[in-house]
Design brief:
Elements: H1 2-25, H2 30-51, H3 58-61, H4 63-78, H5 80-83, H6 87-111, H7 117-138, H8 152-165, H9 171-191, H10 202-207
Length: about 210
């Protein structure tokens, strides 16, 4: 579990950087950038815990999570121009974060005695993509996960792998499998430019 916790912090930092970069691009001040970084890093987990009745959420009990996101946001603010030069590293760490948060979210549902596959998948998805959705909503953008890139589907498939293997092999190995599958699908889709089909200009076509 120590290795998984390490990956959790990598995911939190990656999401903090992602949120901060978005905030800076939207001309938010430093406070806004930090808040957006925190929302991106912790938002999904907070929503999950509230839905599971676990209050206060873990993010409020363990300040190290918020601290990691805070530091990531500050560092991004300071080294903003250099941050754009490490785009590939951010993509990789973001994919790790997606895998970790998906595995942790789905596992949290199981730990609460919930064995319905739909609930497990829902908690995994909410934890994995919830922060990104909040980030985009706060900045008045169409959430990234609703667009053509394969992101939420990677999380969904990771959850399914966890469900199928959780009671067959040691649970910790099942968690790592979920993480790896989610990560690999996300990275491969980016590298190979695999996307979902999008109907473009439909509104214009109707008008014409």
């Amino acid at each position: 579990m120590e290795l998984l916790n390490f990956f959790v912090f990598i995911g939190i930092v990656a999401c903090g950087v992602s949120g901060a970069l978005t905030g800076i691009s939207k001309n938010l001040d430093l406070f806004g950038v930090i808040c957006l970084g925190l929302a991106t890093s912790l938002g999904g987990g907070i929503v999950r815990d509230i839905l599971l009745g676990e209050t206060p959420p873990v993010a409020f009990i363990n300040p190290s999570f918020a601290t990691a996101s805070f530091i990531a946001s500050i560092v991004t603010w300071i080294f903003y121009h250099k941050a754009h030069k490490i785009k590939n590293i951010i993509i990789i760490t973001d994919a790790i974060g997606l895998g970790v948060f998906t595995a942790v979210g789905a596992n949290k549902a199981i730990e609460h005695g919930l064995d319905d596959p739909f609930i497990i998948v829902a908690m995994g998805l909410i934890t994995g993509i919830g922060g990104g959705v909040l980030r985009d909503v706060f900045t008045r953008e169409i959430p990234f996960v609703f667009q053509k890139e394969i992101y939420a589907i990677a999380s969904l498939i990771g959850c399914i792998v966890l469900i199928l293997t959780y009671h067959v092999i040691p649970s910790i190995i099942s968690l790592y499998l979920c993480l790896i599958v989610t990560f690999v699908i996300r990275i491969v889709s980016v590298r190979k430019n695999y996307n979902f089909p999008v109907i473009e200009n439909s509104i214009e076509e109707k008008i014409n």
